[in-house]
Amino acid sequence: MANVVTTKLTKLSNQYSASVKELRELQAKLRSGGAGVSDAEAKRLNALIKTVDAKRLKLMKDYNELKKLEKPAKDYISISGDIKDIQAQINKATARGENTSSLQAKLNTLTSKFNFIAPKVEAAFPEIKVKLPSLGGSYYTGKGTKANPFLQSGKPFTGTYNNRKYKDGIEVTAAAPPGTTPTPSATGTTTTTPATTTTTPSTTTTTPSTTTTTPATTTTPAPAKLTIQEIIDKVAKNYGAIDAIFKTDTELQALLQKAIGADGIPGTTDDLTVNQFTNELQNTNWFKKSAGELQRRGFYKRQYDELRKTLGAEDLKNLDNTSEYGRGLKNTRQIITDEAKRQGVTIGEDDLDLMARDLYDFANEDKPALIKAALRAKIAYKPGQILGGVSGQNLADLRSTAAANGLDYDKSFGENTQTWLQNIAQGESIETYKQRIRDIAKLGVPNTIKDLIGQGIDLATIYTPYKNVMANVLQINPESITLFDPVLRSAITDKGEMSLFDFQRALRKDSRWQYTSDAKDEISKAVLGVAKDFGFMG
């Protein structure tokens, strides 16, 4: 199945190469005709060039999108195979009456990964779509709780599975094995011993069944582990705003994991209460170090908020200068504004105020890493937009690389730019994305050039010697020669590279050469030679 992915990408690459070739041929035809081309023919050729170029750009975009899904597609195939193997193990274990909890946990994790990547992969490569077989042709996930219902092939399950009863995805009680008498328990599982019967020729004595209730145990699949950011997003409504320091402090991360309980799911009954969470937080080393300052700021903040409710318009204008909290908030806003300008981030007043409060309330305004992280998510870009600061410099560098490889940056990469700039701001090398641009430029070019581009050399650099010769021979501005010029690109083909001397000779056949001073001098010399031969000149 992996060959389907490669085949589809290769097909797009070949189609792109063909469109590039067609485009160059049309441009060469238009150029070679020169002034002799009629207006109607020139109009027809220009319309074809426009159509073929639009087709080329679409093919490039489609290739770019599918290339990003190449690895997820391979993961899709690999994970689906793993799911089938584990489901077969579960079916075998269930038939033997063995515990399947660890296998169910693995199945749940793999199914979550599969379901995450499946929609995009199946839309892009429908040929590789697979149906996951399982017990009874179905696959099972979930814990049987309201927050995480037990699902059969993605739908709430009603019935008995793995000796447990479910109704609409919610576990009701453990199902007793055949030949036993179950006794329901509100707080635990039911262990039942078979009823025994002793028979004599004349009498029948029945020993009542005995029932022992033990604490409840769960053998349903474990949930997929949430990231710290996912936990923060989910618990904020219960515990209030979560300080950004929780993302980097291991002690506070451990507290968040504890807060959502052993099941790893926020919003269930085993979560810490607000009071329990507060008490745990106050016992952390971070809180002990910051408590005095946080309490002081909390006091001044309450004063500040109350004053904002009662002061008139004129006094409100001065509140940020006259109150302790206001001055701290104003200073934090300035720190954020300066860093935003340095990064090239545009931030609105409302976002600036919220960010300043989040940082200042938790005494984090002097932590550059947290400020940069908060602003990084605000980096935004739309095709044609001009950015300042570091983001603007990085964008200019990416544009320059695209131009040096004959590509229109916004048409080819505009949709990816915001993510690229955010990743670069986070520390990823800009060279990663410059090479991605070069990889697109490799499509449809001779192998010799592909190898050079793969080494990080731009097309502009590769063609510079030929471009200089061309400008000199045709006596034109070198800046007017683009990388799409068919004459320039003819210097290097699949057959090899022209020597500069051969290229110079080939240029004399170009229609533009006849208008150069060298051509005129050569014609003059030829005319003079003929005149001398006929004795018209001494």
Can you characterise this structure?
- This protein is mainly α.
- Helices cover 59% and strands 7% of the residues.
- It is built from 21 helices and twelve strands.
- The protein has a three-stranded antiparallel sheet with strand order 1-2-3.
- α10 packs parallel to α13 and α13 (389-403) crosses α15.
- The protein is flat and about 105 Å long.
- Mean pLDDT is 76; it is low at 174-222.
| Mean pLDDT over all positions | 76
Uncertain segments: 174-222
Radius of gyration: 36 Å
Widest beta sheet: strand line-up: 1-2-3
Helix content: 55-70%
* Overall morphology: flat
| Count of DSSP H/I helices | 21
Would you count the extended β strands for me?
A: 12
Q: How far apart are the first and last residues' alpha carbons, in Å?
A: 83 Å
Largest sheet: 3 strands, antiparallel
Query: What structural class do you assign from the helix and strand content?
Result: mainly alpha
| Strand content range | 5-15%
Quaternary structure type? single chain
What is the topology?
Blueprint: H1 2-33, H2 39-68, H3 70-95, H4 101-124, E1 140-141, E2 151-152, E3 155-156, E4 159-161, E5 164-167, E6 170-174, E7 188-192, E8 196-199, E9 204-207, E10 211-215, H5 228-239, H6 250-259, H7 274-282, H8 285-310, H9 313-322, H10 324-343, H11 349-361, H12 368-376, H13 389-403, H14 409-413, H15 417-425, H16 430-441, H17 447-454, H18 459-474, H19 486-489, E11 492-493, E12 496-497, H20 500-507, H21 517-533
Antiparallel strand pairs: 1-2, 2-3, 4-5, 5-6, 7-10, 8-9, 11-12
